[in-house]
Design a protein that fits this description.
heterodimer, A: 263 residues, alpha/beta, two-stranded antiparallel sheet, B: 705 residues, mainly alpha, Fumarate Reductase Iron-sulfur Protein, Chain B, domain 2, 4 domains, 4-stranded parallel sheet
């Protein structure tokens, strides 16, 4: 099975203190460390496990700039055979639909049976997977928590439903799935693996190679633009505890107990 | 020497007994040679291991640990028993060979053992055989009646080894009995031929002789033949049976100790004989299949005597984690026996983890080294665990809980994912900075001493107190010191021990460069893990000292004086593994405590090189083991048992584990934990303000003057 996984490089929330920049329209990006978006990592692992069972190859693709090669290499160290970087100055300022259009351009150049995305980028809006499927006229399932390959070009998938229930469906290939974290246990990518793929060239493709125009991508085509970015103000009902760790822990227990949370 | 022959005329078709014995000899030796050759097959296929250097040092080890049985008395009863048996075997070895030859050449006397020397040797061997015989009886009774807990095999590790042990012990008893019977018949026959001869008084041969002397010559002859035959058969059976079980150590121990690791402080490299640069060409890291162990590690497996001392001291085993060093070895041995059989094709290439080992088993080890400190045969465990982890890392099989900290170590240089620029934040408190400014050598190189803080002490709220105390002590004695601040990355100590060698190398290279640039001539650290990494894992650094050594030195030099300690408190020192067992620093922290006037100090039963790990540091804090009880909880109970109200340690990870354990064990208010640096900082006699150098120390408080 030929699988394409769309991945994104995001600021790692566990390794950064996210602060607003002085203009107030973005976060302070100096000193940030980035990594692959967490659910995308699960998607790559899932793709690798499928290929290990039924054969095929896994490719990873991202839309971005030179520095985004880092996450492609990491996923190649994990086991993906190809990394593809879609980059062009024209892509800048694309909204979700723009990104989906760029990815669509790449998908149509290849011959993929299955396209996976993470359920949502940590700095994103969980929209690209669905849009991509619609643009390609492929079936789409979101929040997928298990995949089983069936005969006759179908997959059996399970989806997470609010309240902890699971829904099991069959879906025709080719299709687009957005993968939920927890679907598997992603393997560790060590320094040795990263060094081994360090010098493999990563092909890049621009707008013209993907058959894209100004009308489809970039800031000019964007119909959603960010106008503000802020940390929510302390609202009513929120209380910050400012004691020592022990006092805070004690107080939390008391508060939860007082509200009937502990029996 | 007159007497009767052990080789009477047998039934006519078999001609003389000596022919029979020739046959037994030849068959026995051939069998043994074949078995040993087969046992050597995996060693030949195994990875290389450089163990042929320093013959004198190795010979010294043989004298101390093999001939001198150095570690045996650590377990008194079993140890004395073993020393007696071992001494008996050594004494009897010559006699055994003599007896074998006597079977085919009756009049044979070992050169040098005729006359008085021979008589003396006979007396000694008579007693040796008797002692070994009695020891076997005692050992069997121990196994059957007293059943020491450490011999038990928990169900998850398979069947009990008891019957095998008893069978082997009985066989040795039979050997001794047969040997004694043979000697007794010879002596009895001499009495019959009017040549008064007596075996050593009250020895086993003497007793048997007493009975036999009444019998007819032909009966004695029959017993002589029977004793001889039994001796032969038992001897060769044992020789050929030992390589199939726990007694192979009789043959392998000498080699195992000769080839034992000489420098236990150094971790095994990924591959012997490769430079750092060549590592990039290595396809697979670590041990994934049996054949990826080194030949010495396989020899370790063969040599294990199944005594259980390793597991008896293993904190992971005590806490009910899935690891037991004893079975790590015996499972590998069983694997070897099964996959390298006596006949047929030797299989290879099966993955060990998932087959004989579980992942949890391999991650459960705290690398505390208690097993290695105990093993009488100097079997190595930490290197094997690290090699198995290298294999898991290489295959990406890493618990999810460890992946984040490892990734953070790669991108941020610390397992918490904290930003580098905050590394020196512990120096900034408004109560601290004005009284004890700390130089930043990353900005302004050029101090005498570098204080290497390491991640946990820099970032953890609680442990920052250790950093501040350390800085105040350094400042108190007028030491010109500074820190690397953001230029310091994690020492990588646990990164290496968790098998991520290349990440460790990146951290090491970064730190080495930063240390070089700092211009420091000496390094001090308050973290034994950093201490061990800088001292033993890094190369070409200035001399490294742990803060306890530094303080002890200052006390000896009269630079530090103390206020009297609280007389109501009872202190005990918990030896951090990487300070004590791995670096032999036991006395300095104790000397520091004893220098504080009026300080009551007790020792826990398990202290010094038998210290019981706190539960493990570094990445082990992120690992979620399956266990029945926390290791640290066991440790604080030991402190309570010793009557201590304050546990003093000298390691931030011990602090994390023990402080948590005090709460879990419900001992809050009864036991507290303090770092040695914090205690010293509290007790230093200093005029106000805190950080000015004390020029005049009250005479009664100065120690070492």
């Amino acid at each position: 099975m030929e699988i394409l996984v769309c991945v994104k490089r995001v600021p790692d929330t566990s390794e950064n203190d996210i602060e607003l920049n002085s203009a107030g329209n973005d976060i302070e990006r100096d000193d940030l460390v980035y990594s692959i978006n967490e659910s995308d990592n699960y998607a790559v692992e899932e793709a690798l496990q499928i290929v290990a069972k039924v054969g095929g190859t896994v490719s990873v693709v991202t839309v971005g700039a030179e520095e985004d090669e880092e996450v492609l290499r990491r996923q190649m160290a994990m086991g993906a055979s190809h990394g593809i970087l879609l980059t062009d100055p024209q892509f800048e300022g694309s909204d979700g639909r723009g990104i989906a259009s760029i990815l669509k351009g790449w998908v149509q150049k290849g011959n993929y049976d299955l396209i996976l995305t993470g359920v949502q980028a940590e700095d994103g809006a969980a929209q690209v997977g669905g849009m991509l499927a619609a643009m390609l006229d492929y079936p789409f399932a979101s929040l997928v928590t298990s995949i089983e390959v069936l005969a006759n070009n179908k997959l059996k998938i399970a989806r997470e439903i609010e309240g902890g229930n699971r829904e099991v469906s069959e879906i025709d290939l080719p299709c687009v799935l957005s993968i939920q974290t927890g679907i598997n246990e992603p393997r560790y990518v060590g320094m040795k693996g990263i060094r081994a793929v360090q010098s493999i060239p990563i092909p890049t493709y621009g707008a013209s190679e993907l058959g894209l125009t100004h009308a489809q991508v970039g800031s000019a085509a964007a119909k959603v633009t960010r106008v503000d970015y802020f940390v929510p103000a302390l609202g009513k009902g929120a209380r910050m505890l400012s004691g020592t760790r022990e006092q805070n822990a004690q107080e939390v227990v008391e508060l939860v107990a007082a509200k009937g949370g502990l029996k | 020497m007159q007497g009767l022959s052990a080789t009477p005329q047998l039934v006519s078709w078999l001609s003389q007994g000596s022919v029979l014995f020739w046959l037994v000899h030849v068959l026995g030796v051939l069998c043994f040679a074949y078995i040993v050759a087969r046992r050597l097959v995996p060693l030949v296929r195994a990875e290389r291991d450089l163990r042929f250097d320093h013959p004198l040092q190795r010979f010294h080890n043989v004298l101390k640990y093999w001939f001198g049985q150095w570690k045996h008395p650590r377990y008194k009863a079993a140890g004395i028993l073993h020393i007696l048996i071992f001494a008996g075997f050594v004494v009897l070895a010559l006699r055994a060979f003599t007896v074998l030859i006597v079977g085919v050449s009756y009049g044979f006397v070992m050169p040098g053992l005729s006359g008085v020397a021979g008589r003396l040797y006979e007396t000694v061997t008579d007693y040796a055989a008797t002692i070994v015989f009695l020891c076997m009886i005692v050992a069997i009774v121990r196994r059957l009646v007293f059943k020491p807990a450490r011999y038990e095999v928990p169900r998850r590790f398979g069947n009990s080894h008891k019957m095998d042990a008893i069978f082997l012990l009985s066989l040795i008893a039979v050997l001794m009995l047969a040997d004694s019977l043979f000697e007794a018949t010879r002596a009895a026959a001499l009495v019959h031929s009017q040549e008064p001869e007596s075996r050593a008084y009250l020895s086993l041969p003497w007793l048997l002789q007493m009975f036999l002397v009444q019998a007819s010559t032909s009966t004695i002859g029959a017993f002589c033949f029977a004793g001889y035959l039994a001796h032969e058969l038992a001897f060769y059976f044992l020789l050929c049976y030992r390589p199939f079980g726990i007694q192979f150590h009789v043959e392998t121990s000498l080699f195992n100790i000769y080839f034992a690791k000489l420098d236990r402080k150094k971790l095994k490299p990924v591959k012997w004989g490769l430079s750092d640069q060549q590592l990039d060409q290595v396809k697979s890291f670590g041990v994934k299949t049996f054949e990826e162990f080194t030949w010495k590690h396989i020899l370790d497996f063969y040599s294990c005597a199944d005594c259980g001392r390793c597991s008896d001291n293993c904190p992971s085993n005590a806490a009910g984690r899935p690891l037991s060093p004893r079975f790590l070895t015996t499972k590998a041995r069983d694997y070897a026996f099964q996959h390298y059989p006596m006949f047929g094709k030797a299989g290879n290439g099966h993955a060990l983890v998932g087959n004989i080992y579980s992942e949890d088993e391999i991650w459960s080890c705290t690398t505390c080294g208690a097993c290695e400190a105990e093993c009488p045969l100097l079997i190595e465990y930490i290197d094997k665990i690290v090699d198995l982890r290298r294999g898991l890392i290489d295959d990406g099989n890493v618990p999810q809980s460890l992946q984040k900290p490892l990734k953070a170590l790669e991108s941020r240089g610390n397992p918490y994912g904290k930003m580098e620029k905050k590394k020196a934040d512990w120096t900034l408190g408004k109560d601290f900075q004005p009284v004890c400014p700390v130089k930043r050598l990353d900005k302004e190189p050029g101090a005498n001493t570098l204080y290497f803080v390491d991640s946990i002490t820099s970032f953890d709220d609680r442990m920052q107190s250790i950093a501040r105390s350390t800085a105040r002590i350094l400042s108190h004695v007028g030491e010109d010191f500074g820190i690397l601040g953001p230029a310091e990355r994690d020492s990588g100590h646990e990164v290496r021990r968790f098998g991520e060698e290349l990440l460790f190398m990146a951290l090491r290279d970064h730190n080495s460069e930063a240390i070089k640039n700092s211009g420091a001539r000496r390094i001090v650290t308050s973290d034994p893990h950093a201490f061990n990494a800088l001292k033993n894992d890094y190369r070409h650094l200035p001399p490294v000292e742990h803060i306890s050594q530094f303080i002890a030195r200052q006390i000896r030099g009269g630079q530090i004086g103390f206020k009297p300690a609280d007389a109501d408190k009872v202190f005990t020192f918990h030896d951090p593994c990487y300070l004590g067992r791995h670096n032999d620093v036991y006395d300095d922290p104790r000397a520091v405590l004893d220098a504080i006037p009026g300080l009551n100090r007790v020792e826990m039963k398990r202290c010094r090189d038998r210290s019981f790990c706190c539960g493990g540091g570094g990445l082990m804090l992120f690992y979620e083991p399956k266990e029945e009880e926390r290791i640290g909880v066991k440790r604080v109970r030991m402190a309570a048992e010793a009557g201590a109200s304050v546990i003093v340690t000298s390691c931030p990870f011990c602090m994390v584990n023990l402080e948590d354990a005090v709460k879990v064990a419900g001992l809050e208010g009864k036991i507290s934990v303090i770092d040695l640096a914090e205690l010293v900082d509290q007790q230093i006699a200093r005029p106000v303000p805190a950080c000015e150098e004390v020029r005049e120390i009250p005479q009664e408080c100065v120690i070492g003057r």
